[in-house]
Amino acid sequence: MSFKCPLCMRIFSQCFAYTQHVQKCLKNVEVEVEEDDDNNDSEKYSSEMDTRSNLSSEYENNKVEVDDDNDVQNMSFDSIGSAISEMSLEDSNFENILDSSEEPEIFEEPKNLNTKTCTEFPNDAYKDLMLLVTKYKINNKGSNKIIHFFNKHSNLIESPLPKNIEQERAFMNNMKFSNLEFSKVLITKHEDKDYFLYYQNLIQCIKNILTIPVITQNFVLSYENYEYNRESIYNEQNTGKWWKIMQESLPTSSKLLSIILYSDVTTTVTLGKSQLHPIYITLGNIPIWRRNKQYAKQLLGYLPILEAANKDLIHDTFHKSLRHLLEPIILLKDGIDLFINNENTWFYPRVSTIIADWPEAASFCLVYKSFNSNLPCHSCLVKRENLANIDLSVNDVILRTHDEMRKYFENDTQRSVCIESVHNFFWDLPFRIILLSNYLHSIARLTANEYRSLMKIMIFVIDNLYDENNNEVDNFVNNDDLTKLYEYWNEMYILSRYEEFSESDLEKFNDAIHRWAWMFVKAFKFVSPSNLKLPKLHSWVYHIIDSIRSYGAINGYTTETYESLHKYFVKIPYQISNKKDVKPQLLQTIKRQAISIRISQHSVNSAKTPRTCKFSARLFEFSLQDANTFFNEKKDSVDNKMQTGFARFISCLDSYLDLLDGFTIIVWFSDIAISMDSEESNDYISDKELCYGQALLLAEVLTNSPLNLALIQWYDFKSKRNPYLYGCPHLKLIELYNFVAIESIHGVIHIVLRFDKQNEYFVNKYIF
After folding, report:
1. Beta partners for 255?
2. Per its UniProt record, what InterPro entries does this chain match (predicted)?
3. Phi, psi of 98 (to 5 degrees)
């Protein structure tokens, strides 16, 4: 695809180069673009080129959106974050209708638009069009085509739709809702450039989260001393030691409101030349499984990204922004009343955890970011030379505390503990905060899911992959050790995903971490430029267990659902902006998306009727008396697996049934687990009452009471003495066939053929 400049007729092969060129041409030339014949029914207020050079200046005021209207009728805009997040939970059967060759849309009000503020659309057609356009991210060109199509075929004297989509977007931009207010504040000025913080009021964000109907279900209010078999159990945040300490510090009858923040700089485009720094909020009172949903989070704001060489100025700007964001809870000396489950509850908000990548965690703690720092860990004062030491004692791991770090700063000895010469805002808070870095981060260019999927099968790739050290390579890692390393990784990872931990689980987890880390360092220390002196490795080995005891299971602090929010709060809004002064435009797009979702929630969704399990396709149908003739006719047109199924069909059915009228067959080649009852399991070696087989055919037997059956070729354990290898069942495929009831199939499994071996298989237990 190529892009032709309408001003000088120059042709570009890339959209980015074309856009840059047009911006320069616009400085010297004004152009009028003729209307397309298909758009004769739509009024063009200005060409997109002209609009680009006449951007609205409505955001030059100190408030991006100011709303003093407290009489919102018929609608209540509850939550920006929840509204946008709910978009991801809906079906998306349409692809985004985006044309990369089209000029970026610009949100300028049409010249003849009535800018009177409102809270309702003029009519249902107007509303439904905007819901459609916003939900599926349809651009201006596609939206105007929809309007033209509707006007052409509706046969209405007067169209209920706007003249063009720009008018409708401007209409939504002027809609006012009492609890949608983004503000901006000047944080710093550097080299004649102003750096603003765009944000929502923290208390309003909290209220927005609490207005989501399902959020207050199972909303925890008090510390729970959960024990089982005389062991402490840690799952939700309110079972951790931090909650207990905080609750004891509050006035009697008040409740703790736990605030969790997530901060992450993200790129707006693939090339990474433009960045934004969103910060999100959720509540630790929400159960983990619900807190990990996107609708349980809110966009708190966009932090300024300072372009400066002065590190102190950058850190000072960052902490000034944090102070401004969190100032509302600092000022709440007497707490706050919030409406929970139909009654007012007295809360004291406290920031419990901040989730961030390692460089950002250093920014929060003001620890030197360089891995070459003498004391690079933001949690403790471990020396760099001990980062790869798996056998440190308790005395070697001295925690950084607010009070201690503040003393170093006030005594002007901050360099001795490797912290920046900037006052840390969090030192002023009357409570301790933990920073949870993304310990198990993904490889560049891989998503977390892709990375986990890679690790789940890697052990089977490595197994039996290469021979011994015949070439006498230095620091050679033998194949068995490498395979064991991946086995230990998988064991450790599975433990890390536990939803709750007893003290014995934590001991087992700690042992698994040290076992993996010891072998990891042994295998790769000599091929690492730093000899594996990695702060993340140290933090995982020495700080993760204490984090669980203090704040609950770590699967409540996964970064994946937060990272997915970038799509709705950064990338999509940026994509449909004009790429200039983007933050105000992003907030307009977020507002329109939120309004659309909020309005659509008022529609009644028809309930889906559950369907019973049925065969999705009928491949063959024949009667029993014609079975052999039918199989002979088909055998040359089917593959080996189906031929095997045909060959075993009659004998296996004879052993299963005495009377047959007819049957339907479909093909389904899958490896499956079959549940064995307690009596059957005594006759076989099973894996916790599961046996494994390969389904060759599925058959529907047409008797008076139709039966659904599966023809199975069975796997057996390769060795009766050692049935497991790398923690996985080690199998072989045998010449034993049976029909089983489909109801006894436990599920589809992942079978891996062992590399360079004949008839040896693993059941991949790491797929979960």
Report:
1. 347
2. Plavaka (IPR041078)
3. -125, 130
